[in-house]
């Protein structure tokens, strides 16, 4: 479902815009012309194909994904207090 709101409506009722974004894009207009689109994070990731590593690891089949992060090499040295 597509929702359209003016900038004024968006500023006065951001909660309504966020609720509407759960079911589809929310087009925000300035002087009657679409200027911005509010999307749920799920829809944004679907459109851009971007996923964070935490999203991938939370997937049901995550245990079948080979993931070997490099070991950190931490070297300590004495503080120079001069």
Task: Note down, in words, how this protein is organized.
The protein is of the alpha+beta class and 82 residues long. The protein has a domain at 3-59: YefM-like domain (YefM-like fold). The chain has 4 helices and 3 strands, in the order βααββαα. The chain has helices at residues 7-12, 14-21, 41-48, 53-57, and strands at residues 3-6, 26-30, 33-38. The chain has a 3-stranded mixed sheet with strand order 1-2-3. β2 (26-30) and β3 (33-38) form a beta hairpin. The chain starts with a strand and ends in a 25-residue tail after the last helix. The mean pLDDT is 85.
Mean pLDDT, rounded to whole units?
85
Taken from the alpha-carbon principal axes, the silhouette is elongated
CATH superfamily of the domain at 3-59: YefM-like domain
Distance between the termini: 66 Å
Q: Assign a percent range to the helix content.
A: 25-40%
SSE-based structural type: alpha+beta
Number of strands: 3
Tally the helices: 4
Question: Strand count, sense and closure of the main sheet?
Answer: 3 strands, mixed
Report the sheet-strand fraction: 15-25%
Short description:
The chain has 82 residues and is an alpha+beta fold.
């Amino acid at each position: 479902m597509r929702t359209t709101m003016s900038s004024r409506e968006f500023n006065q009722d951001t909660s309504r815009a966020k609720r509407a974004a759960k079911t589809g894009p929310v087009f925000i207009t300035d002087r009657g012309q679409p200027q911005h689109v509010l999307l749920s994070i799920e829809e944004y990731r679907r459109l851009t194909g971007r996923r964070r590593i935490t999203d991938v690891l939370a997937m049901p089949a995550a245990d079948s994904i080979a993931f070997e992060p490099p070991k950190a090499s931490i070297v300590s040295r004495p503080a120079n207090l001069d």
